[in-house]
Amino acid sequence: MDTVANKPSKTSSQPSLNSDNSFLQDFFNSSKTLVHPSSIIGPDVVLDKNVKIGPFCVIAGKVKIGQGTRIHPHVSIGFPAQSIDTYKSLGEVEIGKNCEIREFATISASKFENGKTIIGDNCYVMSYSHVAHDVTLEDNVILINNVNLGGHVHVEKNAFLMANSAAHQFCRIGQFCALAPFSAIRQDLPPFCMFSGMPAKFFGLNLVALKRAGICAESIKAIKHVTKLFYQDKLILVDIKKIAEQESEQWWAADKNVQKFLEFIQNSKRGVSKRSETQG
Predict the structure, then answer these.
(1) Residues 119, 131: contact at Cβ < 8 Å?
(2) Does one domain contain both 29 and 130?
(3) What is the mean pLDDT of residues 64-76?
(4) Domain assignment of residue 271, given as a range
(5) Do 126 and 261 share a domain, yes or no?
């Protein structure tokens, strides 16, 4: 890995600082690590191979950025948590491989000395999105423009948060979830589903994502059945589990994705809302 400070190093292992027009060509096409000379990179920032830092970025604190990730212009990473009692960068920020962090996005440092703000591999964080302190994005998460995530929010793999959506601090968003534009949540969102509104309501399965991921039709049918029991029939978790134990219902209960759905609800700390579009 390359450790980058403001003062350019003359060693061949350090990123190339390039102020002429060729920077744009290199930013999009080269396989070497690049830092634009207008960006400010702290002494504890570590860049892996083929990382690109565009113009006017500021990266502070203990930050690690994985191979192939591109930081576009005017991005802020690792500055103190946006909390009235936090005055310096604490903990670490870890950004995985092959991520795209677009213009004017902000990724805050942890609020704690031993804390972490984590972005997994292959994530796409679009312009003006805010990833607050101690947030975790698992792999393949997409944040469309101006998404706002409060502190300690956990977004599971393959989730898709659309423009101007927001999550209250400590919420958890399940894998393959889709949150519609201008929606907001204050409770956890179970996996595989679509949600919309303020506060967000259940609007069915995220079928496009499930099919693209290669989840079979039988499993999708099983997920649809368990979400019907939870959101349409309004059954509580205990009753759903009792039904699952019945001999005639084993066709859906044994499905691994159904088990993930039920486990998510069982482990929820903020609770899971039963609001759905069927309520009007």
Answers:
(1) yes
(2) yes
(3) 98
(4) 212-279
(5) no
